[in-house]
Amino acid sequence: MLHFRFLRFAGLLLGLAVLLGSAVPGPVVQTRDFSSYFAAHGLRGSLLVLNGATGQYTAYDEARCRQGFLPASTFKIPNTLIGLETGAVRDTAEVFRWDGKKRSFPQWNQDMSLAQALRVSCVPCYQQIARRVGAKRYQQWLPKLRFGRMQVTPATVDSFWLVGSSRITQFEQIDFLQRLQQGKLPISKRNQDLTKTLLELSRGPGWVLRGKTGWAMREGQDNGWFVGWVEQTGQVYFFALNVEPADGQPATSSFGPGRRALTEDILRQEFGLLAGPGK
Questions:
Q1: Catalytic member of 73, 113, 159, 253
Q2: Phi, psi at residue 55, to the nearest 5°?
């Protein structure tokens, strides 16, 4: 009888522990209306910002921030890390030879280093890296990095981040970026530091902006990213923007620069970041 009561009591404790564990609160998310900023840039979409010190998220369209999209060229961040860590790329100075094919972006039509390739988002250069890494090593490394849900096979090894069923949410982008910024990825400190250096876009009095854009097609619609973080006076704010043209039409020439301009406007006006001229 005593043994039975003990087992029953132990069962109640286990059940209580499960209930308490399942009740662990999720991240604190404050919703904001940034629609006027999006409209001013002719864009629609969602923005997620994380205050690294407090752990509070600020979301414009939280539900959309939880939807998965193709990572497009934001995948160049983990691709750089994997390329360096596996030795598929020797270092950031390694030169990728132009194959002589004229492409729609003139800046891609030349030899360039890894640092230059990331800066101009050279797809052919990173496709070379992908073929060197190979599907098998991606399948080993991507789960370790926890960069969304990438679907890679030998047949799609140089395109799985641009087309297909690979997906990542804005919450997942920020989780990945925060671990990179803090040096907590399962990658050598050297290669994390090199990648962070390559991601620097501009700096001003007391602040540094690091990030990466991306551009893919989603169901026939242009879809764009801008992800990264701002380091300012000892604080770090992470951001992930995902947008489409507001009118649903093909993207115009303003779509590319509009992603970064929109994000910077909100970070500056609503969060007090990026004060003063950058260079």
A1: 73
A2: 80, 10
